[in-house]
Amino acid sequence: FSATRSTNHEPSEMSNRTMTIYFDQVLVNIGNHFDLASSIFVAPRKGIYSFSFHVVKVYNRQTIQVSLMQNGYPVISAFAGDQDVTREAASNGVLLHMEREDKVHLKLERGNLMGGWKYSTFSGFLVFPL
């Protein structure tokens, strides 16, 4: 799957306290295992999966931190915190061993994300089935 966010993402607009980063457009979703409404990927089978994300902060003098969550636990994080740069990006990627029905999503730990022009993206795919 590959998803983008086309509008800015600020915590005040979220309807819950999970701080899940919601995406509003799917570019690729073979098998439909990425649920756009919840922005959660559910593994269809046991295997090794690759995930990557790229997010851009909205304001200078701010730090953003994003974590990739597997079954509710942070696996990797990325941050951007240069106080003098307005449009700074944070990216990370990982290979994960996942069981069938494991869930992965992005969590905004702090800050606000740039969404316009599809700067913020989240992608994943099965590398090797087990």
From TrEMBL:
SUPFAM superfamilies: TNF-like (SSF49842). Keywords: Disulfide bond, Glycoprotein, Secreted, Signal. The keyword Secreted applies. Coiled coil: none annotated. One of its GO terms (cellular component) is extracellular region. It is found in: Secreted. Gene3D superfamilies: 2.60.120.40. Residues 1-130 form the C1q domain. InterPro entries: C1q_dom, Cerebellin_Synaptic_Org, Tumour_necrosis_fac-like_dom. One of its GO terms (biological process) is maintenance of synapse structure. PANTHER family: CEREBELLIN-2, CEREBELLIN-RELATED. This is CBLN2 protein.
